[in-house]
Design brief:
Blueprint (H helix, E strand, L loop, with lengths): L6 H15 L11 E4 H4 L50 E7 L11 H10 L3 E7 L3 H11 L5 E5 H4 L5 H8 L4 H4 L15 H5 L2 E2 L2 E2 L2 E4 L6 E5 H6 L8 H11 L7 E3 L3 H9 L5 E3 L5 E3 L4 H15 L5 H5 L6 H6 L2 E6 L3 H9 L8 E4 L18 E7 L5 H14 L6 H8 L6 E4 L2 E4 L1 H6 L22 H13 L10 E4 L2 H18 L8 H26 L4
Parallel strand pairs: 2-3, 2-4, 9-12
Antiparallel strand pairs: 1-17, 4-14, 5-6, 7-14, 8-12, 8-13, 10-11, 15-16
């Protein structure tokens, strides 16, 4: 277990401020910033939808539901006719990966073909997504960053003074993308305006956003194993205790639960994703709520009963996809993208592998059910500062190429590789080959974002199942007092997130008593939480939210 005294915990607190401080110069702590959406319009691209002739979803999308495509288009449109990389200089890129790292340059035909289409070589520095925060903090603190860096939003909010670090290390993209300038990069201009607004840091457009689904996660089950055991999906948190006992059998190396269940239970008990408006007109943070405390007590029960996979007990950052695929673990929480990723990874070797999402449920039978609402963007690509105008434009052209939406040749190449080599098309469906499973991994897709589409029709029933889940979850989305406001977390609060939640993880594992949570919350309040509340309340009042 890592605590706030470990190197990772230390860097989580000070990583960005180490480099910002430079030659021991003292800097004032960032108090956070907040800008209403309408005031950000001049900083971000003017949206120009990229229309693909003849492409029409079978299942119409809505504000919170991605359009669904039950069949693959017969022809893919070429969105970009010129190669983006023209200088002959190798691109260096740092990206996360939640899965097996593919063979590298020289041993990977997918890389070779992609780089040929791009006109130059991209050299990836791939790190385990489960421990990406360690690599990210160390890299930022060193001040020596690759030309392109993918930063998940859930990691950057843990880094104190990230905005100052970004302003120091990464390029201002406004001169290339603000307003009508984005016409030069039409696939980037295709992103939703709200997503671009979240790429603004300290009043500067810096992050190329990965447009979010509105839902941060879902709970998934191994449906095939659930059916073998004659078990039903949970309808409440109470059902998890019953399922834990029914599923867990250490002698058979089978445990009920894996990673992320603590967030699932926070949601089930009704704790807010971040801040919540109280009846007296003030704000409370999730840590301060009775619902959050109740979720901790519940998670302790799951750990004490032995229902959690032992890899997770030993290491909170342990990979859970592997145990899920092998059947050692049956229920866990993950992003919606894991649905098709796991099907592609495990179904070829195990045709019975069936993964389904659980409809959001309350902690207690008959209780109110909420679904957390995601921010408009979840990850960001940054371009290194000081590369010069020509190189910055070249890297933006690379992001533009990899941003191509569903229905384009570029999208197919990024996601599936080369037809006839990495995949075949049978009865209108993509079938990945053994080589494709070995070589094609989420790499080039992390050089940009793209509008969401529910299109993985090669997996029987997936498109409809995902569409149905989103349709149900959309009705449960919680109200967020800061929707439409770009809020950058104050440094003190950002630096407290990791150590506070590390202590929570220690409670789960019996290294701290449950009763200590109140003390941990008080420490959070005293060390920056109360100060952050004042900032957020000021923002809410100024924008008519309180």
């Amino acid at each position: 277990m890592a605590t706030n005294t470990t190197r990772r915990g230390f860097l989580g607190l000070v990583g960005a401020s180490v480099l910002v401080a430079g030659c021991a110069e003292k800097k004032a702590t960032s108090k956070g910033t907040a800008v209403a959406a309408d005031k950000l319009k001049s900083l971000v691209p003017t949206r120009i939808p990229f229309e693909i002739p003849g492409l029409k979803p079978d299942l119409p999308g809505s504000e919170f539901v991605a359009p669904g495509f039950l069949t693959r288009p017969a022809n893919m449109v070429q969105a970009v006719t010129t190669k983006p990389l023209t200088s002959g200089k190798e691109v260096t890129a740092m990206t996360p990966l939640w899965g097996t790292v593919p063979p590298g340059l020289g041993d990977n035909s997918y890389y070779e073909y992609m780089n040929e289409r791009l006109g130059g070589t991209v050299r990836f520095n791939i790190s385990d997504g489960n421990t990406y925060h360690e690599k990210l903090s160390t890299t930022l603190a060193s001040g020596d960053v690759p030309e392109m860096v993918m930063v998940p939003g859930w990691e950057l909010i843990k880094i104190a003074r990230f905005t100052e670090a970004a302003n120091k290390l990464f390029a201002d993209l406004g001169p290339y993308l603000a307003g009508d300038k984005a016409k030069e990069f039409p696939l980037l201009a295709n992103y939703d305006t709200a997503a671009w607004q979240y790429g603004v840091f300290g009043g500067i457009l810096q992050g190329i956003p990965w447009q979010n689904e509105p839902f941060p996660f879902a709970t998934f089950v191994r449906q095939d194993i659930m059916e073998e055991l004659s078990l039903q999906h949970p309808k409440s948190g109470d059902d998890l205790l019953v399922l834990g006992k029914a599923i867990t059998d250490a002698k058979k190396k089978r445990w009920a639960f894996g990673g992320g269940m603590e967030q699932e239970m926070q949601r089930a008990f009704g704790a807010p994703r971040e801040w919540r408006k109280k009846s007296d007109g003030t704000l409370e943070y999730k840590y301060e709520t009775a619902e959050f405390a109740a979720s901790i007590e519940f998670m302790v029960k799951l750990f004490e009963a032995g229902y959690m996979h032992p890899d997770l007990v030993a290491n909170k950052d342990a990979d859970m996809k592997g145990p899920f695929g092998s059947g050692q673990m049956i229920i866990y929480r993950d992003g919606l993208g894991a649905w098709h990723e796991n099907l592609g990874r495990f179904q070829a070797d195990n045709p019975k592998f069936d993964m389904q999402a659980v409809v959001p449920y309350p902690a207690k039978p008959g209780g109110k059910t909420i679904m957390w609402r995601n921010e408009p963007a979840g990850m960001f690509v940054f371009i290194k500062k000081g590369l010069g105008d020509a190189r910055t434009r070249e890297l933006l052209a690379l992001s533009n190429w990899t941003s191509a939406p569903y229905g384009t040749q570029e999208y197919e190449l990024v996601n599936n590789g080369v037809e006839g080599k990495h995949y075949n098309v049978k009865d209108g469906k993509v079938e990945q080959t053994a080589l494709g499973r070995k070589e094609v991994a989420p790499t080039y897709m992390f050089l940009s974002g793209r509008p969401p589409a529910n299109e993985k029709s090669q997996y029987e029933g997936l498109v409809q199942a995902l569409y149905d889940w989103q349709t149900q979850a959309a009705k449960l989305l919680e109200n967020d007092p800061f929707v439409g406001i770009r809020v950058e977390v104050p440094s003190k609060m950002a630096g407290l997130a990791q150590p506070t939640e590390d202590k929570m993880q220690e409670i789960f594992r019996g290294k701290r008593p449950v009763s200590e949570w109140a003390k941990i919350v008080k420490e959070w309040q005293d060390q920056g939480g109360n100060e952050a509340r004042e900032f957020y309340m000021k923002v809410a009042r100024e924008n008519g939210r309180l």
